[in-house]
Amino acid sequence: MPYSVEITLADPPSSDKDAGIPMYLLPDMFDTVADAKEAAAAHIASLDRDPATVLFAVTDHNGLTIMTSADATE
After folding, report:
1. How far apart are CA 20 and CA 7, in angstroms?
2. Phi-psi region of 16 (alpha: psi -120 to 50; beta: other; left: phi over 0)
3. CB–CB of 33/67 below 8 Å?
4. CB of 6 within 8 A of CB of 69?
5. In this predicted model, what pLDDT tens digit does every residue of 11-55 receive, in sequence order?
6. Residue 36, SS3 per DSSP
7. Which domain of life does the protein's organism represent (predicted)?
8. Which helix (H) or strand (E) holds 74?
9. The whole model's pTM is what?
10. d(CA 56, CA 23)
């Protein structure tokens, strides 16, 4: 089953009421949840920002959330 990774940049709130939280998908699909989690960790490490301000979610092909960064730290 293919899995995707959604990245959320948890920036401080903007004064612009129309600005949403920056979110994007990694371009690759992953065969396992472990591969997706590893890709998320590597991507977050490559960003020029505090890793605590970046969240991720692993979703299946139906869009259901399988794991989040909160789950990974438990």
Report:
1. 14
2. beta
3. yes
4. no
5. 765 566 556 668 999 999 999 999 999 999 999 999 988 999 999
6. helix
7. Bacteria
8. none
9. 0.82
10. 9
Structure tokens belonging to residue 42: 């590597």
13: amino acid identity, one letter: P
Cα distance between the two ends of the chain: 24
- Nearest 10 degrees: CA dihedral of 11, 17, 22, 25? 150
3-state secondary structure of 23: strand
Q: Phi and psi of 73, rounded to 5°?
A: -95, 0
7: nearest Cα among 33, 35, 43? 43
Please tell me the distance from the alpha carbon of residue 24 to that of residue 8, in angstroms, as a whole number. Answer: 7
- Please answer whether residues 9 and 49 qualify as being in contact, where contact means their C-beta atoms are separated by less than 8 angstroms: yes
Angle at 50 between CA 73 and CA 10, to 5 degrees: 75
